[in-house]
Amino acid sequence: MLKNLNILITGATGFIGYNLAKKLSKDNQIYCIVRDSSNIIKLQSLNNVKLITYDGGLDSLYNQISKVKIDIAYHLASLFVAEHNITQIDQLIDSNIKFSTQLVDVLIELGCLNFVNAGTIWQNYNNTKYNPVCLYAATKQAFMDILEYYNQVKGLSIVNLKIYDTYGYSDERKKLFWLFKKIANTSEIVDMPPGDQKLNLVYITDVVNAFELAGLILHDKVLQINETYGVYCQESYSLKELASKFENIARCKLNLNWGAKAYRTREVMLPNMCLPKVPNWNAIIDIDHGIKLLIKE
Known about the structure:
The chain is of the alpha/beta class. The protein folds into 2 domains: 6-167 and 201-231, Rossmann fold (3-Layer(aba) Sandwich); 176-199 and 235-271 and 285-295. The protein has helices spanning 15-24, 41-44, 58-65, 89-109, 135-154, 176-183, 204-220, 239-250, 287-295; strands at residues 6-10, 29-34, 49-53, 72-75, 114-120, 157-163, 165-167, 189-192, 198-199, 201-203, 226-231, 237-238, 255-258. It has a 7-stranded parallel sheet with strand order 3-2-1-4-5-6-11, sandwiched between helices. A two-stranded parallel sheet has the order 7-10. A two-stranded parallel ribbon has the order 8-13. Helix 5 links the parallel strand 5 (114-120) and strand 6 (157-163).
Protein backbone atom coordinates (compact mmCIF):
# COMPACT_ATOMS: atom_id res chain seq x y z
CA MET A 1 0.00 0.00 0.00
CA LEU A 2 0.98 3.66 -0.25
CA LYS A 3 3.21 4.91 2.57
CA ASN A 4 5.23 8.01 3.46
CA LEU A 5 4.06 10.05 0.48
CA ASN A 6 2.69 13.54 -0.05
CA ILE A 7 -0.71 13.02 -1.64
CA LEU A 8 -3.03 15.67 -3.06
CA ILE A 9 -6.78 15.03 -3.11
CA THR A 10 -9.52 17.14 -4.68
CA GLY A 11 -13.15 16.47 -3.83
CA ALA A 12 -12.19 15.41 -0.31
CA THR A 13 -15.38 16.87 1.18
CA GLY A 14 -17.40 14.45 -0.95
CA PHE A 15 -18.32 10.93 0.06
CA ILE A 16 -15.60 9.05 -1.85
CA GLY A 17 -12.95 11.73 -1.44
CA TYR A 18 -13.37 11.96 2.33
CA ASN A 19 -13.15 8.20 2.78
CA LEU A 20 -10.05 8.10 0.57
CA ALA A 21 -8.42 10.89 2.59
CA LYS A 22 -9.33 9.10 5.83
CA LYS A 23 -7.65 5.87 4.77
CA LEU A 24 -4.55 7.33 3.09
CA SER A 25 -3.92 9.77 5.95
CA LYS A 26 -3.00 6.87 8.22
CA ASP A 27 0.33 6.37 6.41
CA ASN A 28 0.78 9.50 4.30
CA GLN A 29 0.62 13.30 4.44
CA ILE A 30 -2.57 14.43 2.70
CA TYR A 31 -3.25 17.83 1.11
CA CYS A 32 -6.90 18.52 0.28
CA ILE A 33 -8.00 21.30 -2.05
CA VAL A 34 -11.19 22.90 -0.74
CA ARG A 35 -13.22 26.04 -1.39
CA ASP A 36 -14.24 28.76 1.08
CA SER A 37 -17.78 27.38 0.98
CA SER A 38 -16.73 23.76 1.65
CA ASN A 39 -17.82 21.94 4.78
CA ILE A 40 -14.44 20.95 6.21
CA ILE A 41 -15.45 19.80 9.69
CA LYS A 42 -14.86 16.09 9.05
CA LEU A 43 -11.55 16.70 7.27
CA GLN A 44 -10.32 18.79 10.20
CA SER A 45 -10.81 15.80 12.49
CA LEU A 46 -8.28 13.70 10.53
CA ASN A 47 -4.59 13.50 11.37
CA ASN A 48 -1.99 14.21 8.68
CA VAL A 49 -4.41 16.28 6.61
CA LYS A 50 -3.72 19.86 5.53
CA LEU A 51 -6.15 22.06 3.61
CA ILE A 52 -5.44 24.17 0.53
CA THR A 53 -8.16 26.75 -0.14
CA TYR A 54 -8.90 27.36 -3.83
CA ASP A 55 -10.31 30.83 -4.48
CA GLY A 56 -10.66 30.43 -8.24
CA GLY A 57 -7.29 32.02 -8.95
CA LEU A 58 -4.52 30.17 -10.75
CA ASP A 59 -1.73 32.06 -8.95
CA SER A 60 -3.11 31.14 -5.54
CA LEU A 61 -3.38 27.50 -6.53
CA TYR A 62 0.21 27.46 -7.78
CA ASN A 63 1.63 29.25 -4.75
CA GLN A 64 -0.02 26.94 -2.24
CA ILE A 65 0.83 23.67 -3.99
CA SER A 66 4.41 24.83 -4.61
CA LYS A 67 5.10 24.71 -0.87
CA VAL A 68 5.28 20.91 -0.93
CA LYS A 69 6.43 18.21 -3.34
CA ILE A 70 3.37 16.18 -4.33
CA ASP A 71 4.02 12.52 -5.18
CA ILE A 72 0.54 11.52 -6.38
CA ALA A 73 -2.61 13.55 -7.09
CA TYR A 74 -6.13 12.17 -6.85
CA HIS A 75 -8.71 14.24 -8.73
CA LEU A 76 -12.25 13.47 -7.54
CA ALA A 77 -13.75 16.97 -7.50
CA SER A 78 -16.52 17.52 -10.05
CA LEU A 79 -19.96 19.00 -10.46
CA PHE A 80 -22.59 16.31 -11.07
CA VAL A 81 -25.82 17.25 -12.82
CA ALA A 82 -27.89 14.38 -14.23
CA GLU A 83 -30.04 16.57 -16.48
CA HIS A 84 -28.71 20.10 -16.81
CA ASN A 85 -30.44 23.35 -17.60
CA ILE A 86 -28.87 26.25 -19.46
CA THR A 87 -27.94 28.10 -16.27
CA GLN A 88 -25.66 25.20 -15.20
CA ILE A 89 -23.46 25.07 -18.30
CA ASP A 90 -20.86 27.53 -17.04
CA GLN A 91 -20.65 25.72 -13.70
CA LEU A 92 -20.14 22.34 -15.36
CA ILE A 93 -17.38 23.65 -17.60
CA ASP A 94 -15.69 25.66 -14.83
CA SER A 95 -15.63 22.73 -12.43
CA ASN A 96 -15.11 19.72 -14.68
CA ILE A 97 -12.88 21.23 -17.36
CA LYS A 98 -11.41 24.63 -16.40
CA PHE A 99 -10.38 23.91 -12.79
CA SER A 100 -9.35 20.35 -13.67
CA THR A 101 -7.04 21.59 -16.44
CA GLN A 102 -5.59 24.35 -14.25
CA LEU A 103 -4.85 21.77 -11.58
CA VAL A 104 -3.03 19.31 -13.81
CA ASP A 105 -1.03 22.09 -15.47
CA VAL A 106 0.11 23.40 -12.08
CA LEU A 107 1.01 19.92 -10.86
CA ILE A 108 3.16 19.20 -13.92
CA GLU A 109 4.86 22.57 -13.61
CA LEU A 110 5.73 21.63 -10.02
CA GLY A 111 7.04 18.19 -10.92
CA CYS A 112 4.11 15.90 -10.04
CA LEU A 113 3.62 13.44 -12.92
CA ASN A 114 1.31 10.89 -11.24
CA PHE A 115 -2.41 11.58 -11.62
CA VAL A 116 -5.46 9.46 -10.70
CA ASN A 117 -8.62 10.80 -12.31
CA ALA A 118 -12.20 9.87 -11.40
CA GLY A 119 -14.37 9.37 -14.47
CA THR A 120 -17.88 7.95 -14.80
CA ILE A 121 -19.43 4.98 -16.52
CA TRP A 122 -21.97 7.47 -17.87
CA GLN A 123 -19.36 8.27 -20.51
CA ASN A 124 -20.25 4.91 -22.10
CA TYR A 125 -24.01 4.85 -22.72
CA ASN A 126 -25.21 1.56 -24.29
CA ASN A 127 -21.78 0.01 -23.72
CA THR A 128 -20.18 2.05 -26.49
CA LYS A 129 -16.62 3.40 -26.49
CA TYR A 130 -17.88 6.94 -26.01
CA ASN A 131 -21.50 7.99 -25.83
CA PRO A 132 -22.25 10.47 -23.02
CA VAL A 133 -25.45 9.98 -21.06
CA CYS A 134 -25.60 13.71 -20.28
CA LEU A 135 -23.58 16.92 -20.45
CA TYR A 136 -21.90 16.06 -17.14
CA ALA A 137 -20.54 12.86 -18.72
CA ALA A 138 -19.44 14.83 -21.78
CA THR A 139 -17.40 17.22 -19.62
CA LYS A 140 -15.75 14.26 -17.89
CA GLN A 141 -14.79 12.85 -21.28
CA ALA A 142 -13.53 16.26 -22.40
CA PHE A 143 -11.12 16.34 -19.47
CA MET A 144 -9.93 12.80 -20.20
CA ASP A 145 -9.15 13.96 -23.75
CA ILE A 146 -7.22 16.92 -22.30
CA LEU A 147 -5.28 14.50 -20.09
CA GLU A 148 -4.23 12.65 -23.24
CA TYR A 149 -2.40 15.81 -24.33
CA TYR A 150 -0.57 16.03 -21.01
CA ASN A 151 0.33 12.35 -21.28
CA GLN A 152 1.65 12.60 -24.82
CA VAL A 153 3.39 15.97 -24.57
CA LYS A 154 4.20 16.60 -20.90
CA GLY A 155 5.00 13.09 -19.66
CA LEU A 156 2.07 12.80 -17.23
CA SER A 157 1.19 9.26 -16.10
CA ILE A 158 -2.52 8.72 -15.61
CA VAL A 159 -4.92 6.15 -14.23
CA ASN A 160 -8.57 6.93 -14.98
CA LEU A 161 -11.09 5.12 -12.79
CA LYS A 162 -14.62 5.02 -14.16
CA ILE A 163 -17.03 4.96 -11.23
CA TYR A 164 -20.31 3.07 -11.25
CA ASP A 165 -22.78 3.44 -8.37
CA THR A 166 -21.35 3.77 -4.87
CA TYR A 167 -22.81 3.51 -1.38
CA GLY A 168 -21.75 2.93 2.18
CA TYR A 169 -21.79 3.75 5.86
CA SER A 170 -22.43 7.44 6.69
CA ASP A 171 -23.36 8.26 3.10
CA GLU A 172 -25.29 11.53 3.33
CA ARG A 173 -25.94 11.84 -0.40
CA LYS A 174 -29.63 11.77 -1.28
CA LYS A 175 -29.35 8.63 -3.32
CA LEU A 176 -31.18 5.30 -3.37
CA PHE A 177 -30.40 3.84 0.07
CA TRP A 178 -30.69 7.26 1.71
CA LEU A 179 -34.25 7.34 0.38
CA PHE A 180 -35.00 3.78 1.50
CA LYS A 181 -33.76 4.50 5.03
CA LYS A 182 -35.77 7.72 5.16
CA ILE A 183 -39.11 6.11 4.27
CA ALA A 184 -38.65 2.69 5.89
CA ASN A 185 -41.66 1.75 8.00
CA THR A 186 -43.36 5.09 7.40
CA SER A 187 -46.56 5.87 5.54
CA GLU A 188 -44.71 8.05 3.03
CA ILE A 189 -45.34 6.98 -0.56
CA VAL A 190 -42.64 7.71 -3.15
CA ASP A 191 -43.24 7.73 -6.88
CA MET A 192 -40.66 5.67 -8.76
CA PRO A 193 -39.86 4.78 -12.38
CA PRO A 194 -40.78 1.24 -13.53
CA GLY A 195 -37.64 -0.03 -11.79
CA ASP A 196 -36.17 -2.41 -14.35
CA GLN A 197 -32.90 -0.48 -14.81
CA LYS A 198 -29.93 -2.29 -13.30
CA LEU A 199 -27.44 -0.68 -10.94
CA ASN A 200 -23.95 -1.85 -10.08
CA LEU A 201 -23.34 -0.80 -6.49
CA VAL A 202 -19.85 -0.85 -4.98
CA TYR A 203 -19.38 -0.42 -1.23
CA ILE A 204 -17.22 2.53 -0.21
CA THR A 205 -14.35 0.52 1.31
CA ASP A 206 -13.98 -1.39 -1.95
CA VAL A 207 -14.06 1.87 -3.93
CA VAL A 208 -11.32 3.37 -1.74
CA ASN A 209 -9.21 0.24 -2.14
CA ALA A 210 -9.45 0.59 -5.93
CA PHE A 211 -8.25 4.19 -5.73
CA GLU A 212 -5.34 3.27 -3.48
CA LEU A 213 -4.30 0.51 -5.88
CA ALA A 214 -4.47 2.99 -8.76
CA GLY A 215 -2.02 5.21 -6.89
CA LEU A 216 0.21 2.22 -6.23
CA ILE A 217 0.28 1.44 -9.95
CA LEU A 218 1.55 4.96 -10.62
CA HIS A 219 4.05 4.88 -7.76
CA ASP A 220 5.54 1.54 -8.85
CA LYS A 221 5.47 2.15 -12.62
CA VAL A 222 8.61 1.78 -14.70
CA LEU A 223 7.33 3.49 -17.86
CA GLN A 224 4.89 6.33 -18.48
CA ILE A 225 1.28 5.09 -18.60
CA ASN A 226 -2.26 6.18 -19.43
CA GLU A 227 -4.75 3.50 -18.36
CA THR A 228 -8.51 3.38 -17.78
CA TYR A 229 -10.23 0.89 -15.48
CA GLY A 230 -13.75 0.26 -14.20
CA VAL A 231 -14.67 0.03 -10.52
CA TYR A 232 -17.59 -2.40 -10.42
CA CYS A 233 -18.91 -5.58 -8.82
CA GLN A 234 -19.65 -8.81 -10.63
CA GLU A 235 -23.41 -8.55 -10.02
CA SER A 236 -25.84 -5.83 -11.01
CA TYR A 237 -29.39 -5.58 -9.66
CA SER A 238 -32.54 -3.88 -10.84
CA LEU A 239 -34.03 -1.06 -8.82
CA LYS A 240 -36.91 -3.35 -7.85
CA GLU A 241 -34.51 -6.09 -6.73
CA LEU A 242 -32.58 -3.64 -4.57
CA ALA A 243 -35.78 -2.43 -2.93
CA SER A 244 -36.79 -6.00 -2.19
CA LYS A 245 -33.36 -6.83 -0.74
CA PHE A 246 -33.47 -3.75 1.49
CA GLU A 247 -36.96 -4.65 2.77
CA ASN A 248 -35.93 -8.23 3.57
CA ILE A 249 -32.65 -7.35 5.30
CA ALA A 250 -33.92 -4.28 7.16
CA ARG A 251 -37.27 -5.97 7.90
CA CYS A 252 -39.20 -2.95 6.76
CA LYS A 253 -41.83 -1.91 4.27
CA LEU A 254 -41.13 0.60 1.51
CA ASN A 255 -44.16 2.30 -0.02
CA LEU A 256 -42.89 2.67 -3.56
CA ASN A 257 -45.25 3.53 -6.39
CA TRP A 258 -43.53 1.75 -9.27
CA GLY A 259 -44.11 3.23 -12.72
CA ALA A 260 -45.50 6.53 -11.48
CA LYS A 261 -42.49 8.34 -12.97
CA ALA A 262 -40.88 7.95 -16.37
CA TYR A 263 -37.30 6.87 -16.81
CA ARG A 264 -34.82 9.72 -17.18
CA THR A 265 -33.70 10.74 -20.64
CA ARG A 266 -31.07 8.19 -21.76
CA GLU A 267 -31.57 6.06 -18.66
CA VAL A 268 -28.75 3.52 -18.26
CA MET A 269 -30.64 0.23 -18.22
CA LEU A 270 -27.60 -2.06 -18.00
CA PRO A 271 -24.14 -0.99 -16.75
CA ASN A 272 -21.14 -1.54 -19.00
CA MET A 273 -19.28 -4.58 -17.66
CA CYS A 274 -16.64 -4.68 -20.40
CA LEU A 275 -14.02 -2.35 -18.92
CA PRO A 276 -10.99 -4.01 -17.34
CA LYS A 277 -10.88 -3.77 -13.56
CA VAL A 278 -8.02 -2.29 -11.59
CA PRO A 279 -5.28 -4.96 -11.54
CA ASN A 280 -5.32 -7.08 -8.37
CA TRP A 281 -8.65 -5.57 -7.27
CA ASN A 282 -12.07 -7.10 -6.75
CA ALA A 283 -15.02 -5.92 -4.71
CA ILE A 284 -15.17 -7.83 -1.42
CA ILE A 285 -18.47 -6.65 0.06
CA ASP A 286 -21.53 -8.02 -1.73
CA ILE A 287 -24.84 -6.19 -1.77
CA ASP A 288 -26.44 -8.15 1.09
CA HIS A 289 -23.47 -7.51 3.39
CA GLY A 290 -23.38 -3.87 2.31
CA ILE A 291 -27.03 -3.32 3.18
CA LYS A 292 -26.49 -4.93 6.58
CA LEU A 293 -23.66 -2.48 7.25
CA LEU A 294 -25.91 0.41 6.22
CA ILE A 295 -28.76 -0.43 8.53
CA LYS A 296 -26.43 -0.64 11.56
CA GLU A 297 -26.08 3.19 11.50
